[in-house]
Amino acid sequence: MIAGYWRHPILWRQPRLLRFFSQFLLAVTFGLIDLSAIAGEVVDLKTRDTSIRLLLEGPDQPTIVIALFMGGDGNVQITDQGTVDKGKANFAIKTRAQFHGRGIATVVVAAPSDMGAGLTRLRGSKEYATDFGNVIAYLRERFKSPVWVHGTSRGTISITLPVPKITEALSRPDGIILSSAVTVSDRRSKNAADNVLDADLERIVGPVLVIANSKDACHVTPASGAQRIAQALKQAKPVVVKIFDGPDDSAEGDPCGPTHHHGYPGIRKEVIDFMIEFMTQPRS
């Protein structure tokens, strides 16, 4: 059960509303504003005897809600003002504004406050499964809309390890999207030894989209792993694997970072459009 939550709403002064939107449209038109930096509503959701900070953005009455789980240590930092500090360059976090114009609300999900950077070794814990389920249940009750989840890189572990442990339907997502999924354990670090294939994937139900980049050079997220995930999803339906082919001249920096093919530079709009098409297609 969800014990409660605290809100930090972003307040507008009505006389300034028209002036704000006119300035906003001009800024967007001439590329003067980063849409990923737009402030939203911050919720500190109480779960167990800790809390999880959420950043809610997009339409008030969305057709779909998508919760976003970043890679790395998962410790995205959301400010009281409703912006993202640490983690803002992550693929799942950076592209969230692309959903809003399509009637989809996004929710950036931080690590539980008692886990923080330790989430890397706690994603498979029963406590994290409880917290994950409480986030889904809260979003379902709040928006009365289907709740999807998207995890990228190690964020895919943040989804696939807890979901099979959740028995209550209200606490399970309506659909799952995995991008640049970790399918090879990094044995060089005891804190990063788990991967998606360690999860009880055969117990996951509902639609699942698995996305990869054929040029992904990260040693723990080979594109070939996408098919291995699909083969292990015995009850999920439908399961779609989509392998993108990132442009050769778009990658730079760390092969496991957001500016390399691992983070889909140069094709991010195409990738998000495919996600939206998958989420919004009619299902029986």
Description:
It is a single chain. The chain has helices at 17-29, 91-94, 97-100, 126-143, 157-160, 225-232, 268-280; strands spanning 4-8, 41-47, 50-57, 64-69, 104-109, 147-152, 175-179, 206-213, 236-244. It has a single domain (4-14, 40-280), classed as Rossmann fold (3-Layer(aba) Sandwich), CATH 3.40.50.1820. Helix content is 23%, strand content 21%. Residues 1-38 have low confidence and may be disordered. The longest helix is centred in the middle third of the chain and has 18 residues, at 126-143.
Helix and strand topology:
Blueprint lengths: L3 E5 L8 H13 L11 E7 L2 E8 L6 E6 L21 H4 L2 H4 L3 E6 L16 H18 L3 E6 L4 H4 L14 E5 L26 E8 L11 H8 L3 E9 L23 H13 L4
Parallel strand pairs: 4-5, 4-6, 6-7, 7-8, 8-9
Antiparallel strand pairs: 1-2, 2-3, 3-5
Summary, kept brief:
This protein is an alpha/beta fold and 284 residues long.
Spans with pLDDT under 50 lasting ≥5 residues? 1-38
Give the helix/strand class.
alpha/beta
Kindly provide the radius of gyration, computed on alpha-carbon positions and rounded to a whole number of angstroms: 18 Å
> What is the second-level CATH architecture?
3-Layer(aba) Sandwich
* Percent range for β-strand residues: 15-25%
Work out the count of structural domains.
Answer: 1
Kindly state the mean pLDDT as a whole number?
85
Determine and state the CATH class. Alpha Beta
Query: What's the count of strands?
Result: 9
The shape is globular
What's the SSE pattern?
EHEEEHHEHEHEEHEH
Kindly report the CATH topology.
Rossmann fold
| CATH-defined superfamily | Alpha/Beta hydrolase fold, catalytic domain
**Estimated helix fraction:** 10-25%
Total count of helical runs of at least 4 residues: 7
